[in-house]
Design goal:
elongated; mainly alpha; 8 strands
């Protein structure tokens, strides 16, 4: 059964907390991009010199991949809506009492999205949607590029801020530890204080992406989702190579550079082979 990816019609987050997080992401990413390329980088290299141009191209490449993959995560429908599903229970299928329909293996209902999601991993607060079969690839690549970008930026930021900070007084340390409070209460709203906030946001983003990717690469490596790991379900572990192809796609190398390319995923999100079924087929063919 071949299925095509569908676009989500309602892409705005439904909860206030998600809307705040979503708005923060779409505002902070271009802000950091501007800060790094038009404030930090010119302090190291003359504008449009060779090295400035090289770093500008690298930064813009990362920015394009971050934003395009984020858009792909948000706009890709990975739910079971509109699909012709089974009317009778089969092994590993289950009945969803909310949707009042039978859901495929690895599909689970999301109360926020109000539908069952194919190969549901989790509901992402920052994108306002579920991460499932069709947008998991975009989610992972978005996180990888964001980790590279924040680590890249943190390297330059450390030298950039070192020349602007003075730790001779206790207040200087307080300004670094509580930078947002300094601005919010009008204690220090200088340009340097705003730069400190952007640098700390970049560091926190790097640490958060690193933690996120450690968790999700571990899940992909073992061929599981968050739900399956918590319930000790290991039926879909086909080896780490195939597990990664099931998420990233057969042409996984192009996926890192062409987020909107029509790269086919091995599965359709409904029928999932297990290691046991593959072993049975192998033994029958002998």
């Amino acid at each position: 059964m071949a299925l095509r990816m569908k676009a989500r019609k309602d892409i705005l987050p439904k909860l206030l907390s998600e809307f705040v997080a979503f708005t923060f992401v779409i505002c902070i990413i271009p802000t950091i991009y501007w800060f790094e390329l038009y404030v930090v980088l010119p302090s190291f290299y003359p504008l449009w010199s060779l090295w400035y141009t090289i770093h500008f191209i690298c930064g813009t490449f990362l920015m394009c991949n971050i934003t395009s993959n984020f858009v792909a995560v948000v706009c890709t429908d990975t739910s079971v809506k509109g699909l012709m599903l089974q009317s009778t229970l089969r092994p590993k299928w289950h009945f969803c009492s909310v949707c009042e329909s039978i859901s495929p293996p690895r599909s689970w209902h999301c109360d926020t999205c109000n539908t069952c999601i194919m190969r549901r991993d989790h509901h992402c607060m920052f994108t306002g949607c579920c991460i499932g079969h069709y947008n998991y690839r975009f989610f992972i690549i978005f996180a990888v590029h964001l980790l590279i970008a924040t680590a890249y930026a943190t390297y330059f930021n450390s030298f950039f801020m070192w020349d602007r900070l003075n730790f001779e007084t206790p207040m200087a340390l307080v300004k670094v530890i509580f930078p947002l409070a300094m601005v919010a209460f009008g204690i220090d709203a200088s340009e340097t204080q705003l730069f400190i906030i952007l640098c700390l946001v970049t560091i926190m983003g790097m640490l958060f992406m690193l933690s996120l990717l450690i968790v999700h690469f571990n899940l992909i490596w073992h061929g599981t989702t968050t739900y399956e790991k918590n319930h000790k379900i290991k039926d879909y572990d086909l080896g780490w190579k195939q597990n990664f192809k099931d998420v990233i796609g057969e042409n996984w190398l192009l996926a890192w550079f062409l987020p909107f390319a029509q790269l086919k995923l091995p599965g359709n999100g409904i029928e999932w082979p297990t290691l046991h079924s593959l072993n049975m087929e192998t033994s029958k063919s002998r």
